[in-house]
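Lecture notes, structural biology module. Today: joint structure prediction for complexes of three components.
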Amino acid sequence: MQDDLHISASLPAAPSSSASTNTVHLRALRRWWVRPRTRDLFIALLYCSPALLVFGLFTYLPFFRAVFLSLNVTNQAGQAVAFNGLAYYLRILNLDGSGRTEYLNSIGTSFGFMLMVVPPVTVISLGLALLSTVKVRGIQIFRTIFTGSIAISLASAGVIWSLLYNPATKATAWLVDLLQIPTPSLLGYGPAAIPAVAAMTVWSGIGFNFILALAGIQAIPHDLYETASIDGAGRWARFRHITLPLLSPTLLFLVIIGSIGSLQAFTQFHLLMPDAPNTVFVYLTYRAFWYDNRYGLAAAMSIVLFAILVALTILQYRTLDRRVHYH
Amino acid sequence: MNAYAGVRQSRIPYFAMVYGLLILTSLILLSPLLFSLSLALQGPTISPSLLPPDLSKLDWGIFLSVFQDEPLIARWILNSFVVATGVTLGVIFTSSLFAYALAYFNFPGKTLLLFVALGSLMIPFEATLIANYLLIAEWKWMNTYQGLILPFVASGFGIFLMRQYFLTLPRELYDAAMVDGCNRFRYLWLVLVPLSRPAIATLAVYTFLNTWNQFYWPLLITNTNEWRTTQVGITIFRSFEGGAVFNTQMAATLIVMLPTLLLLILGQRQLVSGLTSGALKG
Amino acid sequence: MKKATVFALAMLLVAVAALTFVSGSTTALAQAPTITPVPPVPKPEGAVEITFWYGLGGNLGNVVQEVVNKYNSSQSTYYVNAVFQSSYDDTINTINAGLASGNLPNLAQIFEAGSQRMIDTGRTIPVQQFFERDGMMDVIDDMEPAVRANYQIGGTLWSAPFNSSTAMLYIDRAAAAAAGINPDEPMVTFDQVADYARALTVKDANGNTTRYGMGIYGEGWFLEQIHAVHDAFMGTPNNGRAGERMTEYTYNDAVGVQWVEFLKGLVDEGVAVYYGQAGAGQTASASAFANGEVAMHWASIASLRGLLSAAESAGKGVEVGVLYLPRNEGVTGKTIVGGASLWITDVGTTDQQEGAWDFIKFALTPEIQAFWSVNTGYIPVRMAAYEQAEMQAGLEQYPQFQVALNQLRLTGITDANTAHVSGIFVPYRTHYVAAFDQYFTGGYASAQEALDAAVATSNELLAEYNLTVGG
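The predicted structure, tokenised, for the full assembly:
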């Protein structure tokens, strides 16, 4: 820890010293440099550089290569062998006139899945967080339990839930009977499968969402509630006018991360419904990539998904950030 | 219902209701784990019951036999531990620096930088896996910890999380410190980091688990038994044709879960328990 | 909060203590037919290391490690380092990923679905070269014909057969006897099996079905088997086996449509139950069979021991028997084998390639083949293995195994009754299973429509694959 401090502490010093040598020689530069926004820009870039380096090397560089691959047919070693133009994109978006919409449908399935995951997990976690602010003995044990799923990897959760849904274990037979599903497994029947995977994803996400919501609630200053109580505000009014607005940065974060996460969800589909015909877009991408070895198509699909996620995030950010209350 | 409503309540029905609700929700949330424990203890069968049919014949030995069957599992857990810890420390370091710049500095292109960070979250792993593999292979980093760790030490998620958290902290504190001539980095290290312990702890747990969770990267980047991580290693306990047995699979899953559950229980104090409420009043 | 930590730690300690305490007394419970893996033997000084990737997990994987151990202890020139690659799919995909950088094993166990892709890597050495060079063609001649044919593509034996099995229709003999069915006559027609399913379906007083005649799940392997039985191609030309690359899938033919309609008809009639796609559907159907909830079940002969022990532990009186795959009246065709083979790559030194070959020679000895078959339930590659006492005892213990062998030897080998070869073998199965599943859950109006859609998708992909290999 001490070492970390030491090494890093020398970092911010670097630009100012190099800047000061420059100023000796160039007045103009000095004037430019002392403009706080420019100086902040350089210092900011310095602070950002470790992450930017890693992003550049391991995310954006390969991503640009993927853009190139998406315009080509590749062989099984992943090398481009024939230029394909925009054919893959046209195929995915059903602009090639073939009338085949399986990729567009799966994008729809992805959004449906997102809607089945993000609102429930956010609301349930918020509810649990509020519940666990009560001051009773042993509340810490319950908090640990509510947080529990954070410690269970999606892979482990997927294995457990795949057996929960497996008719061999009879664990969900009652639900199959209740919903009158024609197959013995929820996962075997299209309309029930995606909600079943969503339920598992909600369970898996509660721990993380709960802990953030709880931390957010606890960061809200006590006196606000006290003042409000004196002013005669009821529970609901306090929740509506204090908790919710002050928690909004956290909730914005949870919604954005949850949306991106659920649109990118693949582990649970891999474990729960690997061969299902109607599946989410990311899983089709994974199949194109890992089983079909169509790296060009998979790259094009990745880029389509990337575009969707960017658009969605900008939209969410624009609409929600305005309503978010920052200190 | 809300945060501090309980303080003044002391009626017994109220407590009964609260406990009832707490216990009920806990049981629902724990049921998948109890289910997996139940399957693990039922011996090798492809038609297990929901609960063990005979409580006197629980096969606790299954946990030992998983270790006996696969002595390397301890090494795999160690590998996962080293890798997850390395990635976690790296992510906390790079994310705090990045988020600090985003939240506190005033410079052009701030939104662009935020989106560069967020954008990294939106690129599916299929798009980058092969290229990164080739890079690591070229650097001769196959079967090394750095090959397993380095590509993941920056996280758009971490940056966004830390930024959102920093933004909830009072800005006046920063302005006052700057007026007092406090060095920017010292402010980050001495003020922000301690104040952000819940966020950092959350990021740590999240990153640690996500890394612990990885499958395809370690599968590609390691090709000897000793260098496998747990998630790759335990696939050996999956059933194959002819032998669909759930008990070893469940036992192995539970064993792999244990270190992270332990971490959670020990880190719980850091995670919540009112760390910020006091500090923020200042 | 501190209390909670202490409490949790205490719980853990108790759990660990209980675990170590009880474990001694309960080992009797774990009596599955398993081989406890011996840890790898240490590498001798100066031995040439052979990297071997394999994709069989569970108990079967333990037997692979056991064979490797036997080899490593038998000599000290070479040392085989066996690395489990998580699954068949992940094994070949890890090889793909390593093609560009040359990170390949010396020896790899690859499922037959990957044969064409392995050839197309251009990084393999056909094992036939080694057999010819060492004058060991008699070993090839001694191979089970159906098994040998599977890995002879365009007249060359590319890889050494290792684990092979074939598909069976399992039947509960006890239930069959009660329903007046003779389970000792394995040759059955579609109509007979439909009658069996009706006779084996049991309803209670309220009209609820307590036992279905048959459990069904979507699986491409059975489509291939039914085509082989009826001597029909899965694709042209010649299942891709006659030296020319397959250019088109044709499994939407009469045989394919009849097969899917046959199964769907049984479900519609209420005498069979659909358990979903391969994987979970297979496990569910197997479990129901062992529990006496369905009386017939489709599975590999390699599943025999698993089903036997499951039926025994379920204690519902199910007796495991096997029938041939059903067929049309007068058809006497054989089934195909599925499984995996050993491929030698051209990476590394000549010494390593020789080492890989040396291990294959060892694995194909009658002794090892008998050991392998008896402990896994796979079919021995070598006919000579049946002369081993171990193997004979195994056949005596499992008479069902002989039925599988008979089915495999019903007729001579043709290209149509040998597994097809294509670069998109794995994806084609996904397309088929998806269409099958959609038909069973109401997505298509007929089997023809479902299979037409699947074939169209398969052929689009196949054309693209063939383009990438310049074919």
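Point to remember: Chain B has a mean pLDDT of 82.
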